[in-house]
Amino acid sequence: MPSVRLLLFDVSTFSIVVFFLFFYPRERKYLKDFPFLKQFLLFFAIACFSLAVNCFRLTLPETLISSLYLIRLGIYLSFTAVCFSLCKAKIIPVHILKVYLLGLGSAVAILGIVQLFLYPSLRNLYYLGWDEHLNRAFGSFFDPGYFGFLLSIHSLVGVDLIMKAKKRIIQYIYIGMTGICFLGVILSHARSAYLAFIVGFIVLFGLRKGVKFLLISLIFIAVVIALFSLSPQEGIRLNRITSSWARIESWQHALTIFKDHPLFGVGYNSYRYAQRDYGFLDNGWETSHAGAGSDSSFLLVAATMGIVGIGSFLYLWGSILLRSYREKHWLILSAVTAVLVNSFFINSLFYSWVLFILGFILAFSFCDVNRKE
């Protein structure tokens, strides 16, 4: 039976939600003003229903484990609404949150860069199910894909702060911190992170500064990435093949499961058990880090929640993108676009850190509909 990993990060997020409910009773009135509350509740309800209708093919412990991760999803959705309420009540200044996110990203990047020089490989943890990731920055995440992608979002926050800074000295500080985050992205050698950052940068920078500045910046970014990727090592080369075939195989598994369970899927977060039953996982299915998810968040939702679930999923993110564009909230538009692009290659849309960061950005982007970015 797979173990349940209780992360300090999840406990802290839950504590913030509980603290808000008990100690900020007057601010609770803003929860109903959260612009995507209906979409959040719809997706969560369908996730619950998909698991409920699939209980018959799961054992009681398997159902309970899947339910715990359903609670975890509810916590992060609630966290976003709580952050919105605190920003709406002006208890947490928006600018402070942005600086916090950039500072957090800089610290994560520095730790990853130090790790690259002191601990360049996870070979000694291969028996625990981790890949080697030789000469790639992975930080405390043990996965360069997630490490690089998270820093790409932090980098986008930094670009936003740079463009809005009024004092030159403050702007230089933001440039330095953003540069550290971007260096972490490059040293992760994660192609999905590169693509996510470039797409997000096009949305954030191109819509504000025009085509000329955008092209110059993109050429610079492309040259830097190419220079850092000039290596005969398979795990670093941009045109590496091994990981690409593994990702395609992961997509095929998800599509096979979705084809057999098209309406409501196999149940939220019961994907590991479905892969076991289909024979996609070997004897180490209980501990496999790739067993519980697919290398695509969209295919994972389709396989576990079916057509109904993927419909509500697209409705949620489509609503966010459309409203962001209409109200010119460029940062959240660029961040969500980057996440959606990245989620085609790794299961980033259900990763704790991603949900945490997106929760912050969603909250302060829409806490004042009259604010112009």
Short description:
With 373 residues, the chain is mostly helical. The protein contains 13 helices and no strands.
Assembly state = single chain
Distinct helical segment count: 13
User: What is the straight-line distance between the termini?
Assistant: 49 Å
Q: How helical, in percent, are the residues?
A: 55-70%
Shape: globular
Determine the mean pLDDT. Answer: 86
Strand tally? 0
Helices and strands, in order, run as HHHHHHHHHHHHH
Helices and strands: which structural class?
Answer: mainly alpha
The biggest beta sheet, please?
Answer: none
Q: How many individual domains?
A: 2
Radius of gyration: 21 Å
Low-confidence stretches: none
> Beta-strand level of the residues, as a percent range?
under 5%
